[in-house]
Amino acid sequence: MPSYPVRSPKPKANLVQNFRGEARIAVPLHPLEHALVVVAIIHLCFLPWAFGTRTPWAQIVSLGLAVLAFVIALWPRRYSGELAPEGDFTLHTWPRLLRFPPFWLGLGFCLYIVIGALNPSYERMSNGSVWYLKPLEHIDWLPSGLDAPFEIMNAWRTLIIVAAVWLLACSLWTAITRRTAIQSILTAVVINGAILSLVAIVQKMTGANKILWFLSGAPEYFHGTFYYKNHAAAYFNLTAIVSAGLMIWHHIRGLRHLERSSPSPVFAFGFIVIGSCVFMSGSRTGMILLTGYILIMATTYLIWRLRRSAGPSNRLLTVLATLAILGFVATAIYFLNLDKSIDQIRRLANEDKQWSVEARIQARDATYELFRDQPLTGWGAGSFRHAFPSHQQNYPDIFRGPGRRYFYWEHAHNDYVQALAEFGIIGFALPVLALLWLIVKLCRLGGYRHPAFLLTLLGLGLTLCHSWVDFQLYNACILTTFGAIAVLLVRWAELEINPGNITPSTLRG
Predict the structure, then answer these.
(1) How far is CA 228 from CA 61, 281, 441, 451, in A?
(2) Cα gap 200→211, rounded to integer Å
């Protein structure tokens, strides 16, 4: 049974509606759209297995896959034969791309990074034992950057990461025309996340001290294939909320169509596996966020079911399902050690003097001072770790540790303040506006009325919240996955909630 609405064919049904499946004929995906789905799946599944895409080679591969997806997305599609039951036609997707505001905002952001890279105001120099920043002549009224080695981090490497996210997001928005294509990509993300979760769980249970039991040099706080446990928790939270969204969508669809079975239990199992992995990661913030999300999801489901259930048997099933969810929450609380978690939240709120908390607060304050030096255009993409010591030295507690050892901060542990320091208000506004456009678009489509879309959107908020106390969005794997899920969610809502407005003119821009 097709996963798209089945309606009686109309004599004057337009061609695009037919190939999207509005008629009873189950039309297969166009080969180019199928190829795009395959490339997107390979791309999104590659990211976590490439150790969180933290190295230059992995980021370059990610960009290459994004470029390939972009080329496939813009290639003209010829529909004929079984692909076009009512007549041949050619679909050009580039007009839809031009009508996608995040395309222009992303293009502007990439050009902004390039201008800064070509107009450096400082250069990182080294005499062999120490390094320092050398001022350079530059154009004051243009965005400027910081010239630094590529392998450490600089604007060009940041451009690679950002361009990969931008190109993949534009490809998915422009060339995905069928709901089944979106669900295939999201399902692959869940399956990949569940497999990786099982690997991480087994590593924990066997006491492995190497990533995948063979890669040495990883810190003791690694989890799965991620060097940093907080990155692992943030990524697995993303895959968990996708699993929850698919579970809810299939469950509601099964109820409406009176289906005897649906894939929703499979996605529920995937959510449990991935959620268990989060609770074994040791990332307290990740666990707290997921626990809160589960409580919101259980409450939403209970309210929705009680309002629509008819008869005592349905209500009994609703109560049993809710109890099962609450049982999972109880298990989560056990792993989380709730007393310690509440105590840590209290310390975060009261800015306690515990060093790990106080250090992040001071790093945030020092980064804000860095931002105030160049508030409009910032210090340049990828400049934080090179420019931060100039203000870090004003905070002795985060400048030197025991034995007079200097602390080297690669990130501010607050993505928003760091992004302001690097990109300034002008640069920071561009990706923020792109995200806001997607949220507004989803709301205008009425996506907030559908539990699956609403809870997936709220789940994306977990990453945004986690980024306030860490550097989740500065991880290429998390950023790319986040961007792809956000775009696919809105596109899914567009095809699901308002399919009647998809006409040749709208598809062509």
Answers:
(1) 21, 10, 34, 32
(2) 9
